[in-house]
Amino acid sequence: MNLEKLFKYYKTDKSTHQYHRIYDSYLSKLRNKKLNILEIGVADGFSLVAWSKYFKNSKIIGIDIKKLKDNKLGKKISFHQGSQVDGKFLDSLIKKYKKFDIIIDDGSHYPADVIYSFKKLFSSLNIKGLYFVEDTQTSYNHFFGGNAFDLKYSNTHMNFFKNLVDSLNFKEIPNPFYKINKFDGLIKNISFYNNMIVVKKDYNYIESNLVLNNSYENKRFQTKTKRKNKRFRYFLKYKILFKSYTLFLFFINLLKKIILFRY
Ligand SMILES: C[S@@+](CC[C@H](N)C(=O)[O-])C[C@H]1O[C@@H](n2cnc3c(N)ncnc32)[C@H](O)[C@@H]1O
To answer: What is the reported pTM?
Structure first.
């Protein structure tokens, strides 16, 4: 059975949202693999059963803040009661299962919860693993902790993931004070769909020809002095003049951030 039929047959709302199309494009090639799949938020457990029918060789793990009515869902399915924002509970899952290949967040859909779980579980996602976030419409809805009025700078999960895109290009940021975070170099791509986000974890340390260790000046200095032997001139130009300009822009932007309370 394909995913659409499975979702319909087991009555999860994933097919009414049309998520099967997105899932199918990522998961059809993984169907026969032996994976650890974690779903946050399982309601009556129907989606867990659908996943277990789709991934015949995988282990399906579900968590929910509420107790599951029927916990006899089959050998391949495990259920744990707990919250997606309970650090200790998530640590115990990581201790038990070590790594997950696929994580699906269909839990509370509250922005802070989605962000918390992603931050906490990212290290337990295997390289080449996929993290799906469903129902991101709550990000825009103040009745769900979202924000309809400040689309760019509010603390929503849409903004969190929009900002996470910078991690793909962290090597290209010519800011001498840029602080590497735990996602930099470990995200291959982030895809945004209607009400759904997909993050693929993989190594990503590619540097373009514009920078050297987050410095444009150093790269230019290195390139120029390799070709011609006018070190002093290039030193003045790149290491003094260009660097001063970079520092000037750094302080201007720092001031802007302080004035606008944007950290
Ligand atoms: C949309 S339903 C899940 C539907 C299910 N995945 C499906 O496709 O049929 C959301 C579930 O998230 C659970 N939930 C809400 N807050 C949670 C939290 N903090 N941690 C874990 N689960 C939570 C709810 O109890 C509910 O069962």
So the answer is: 0.95
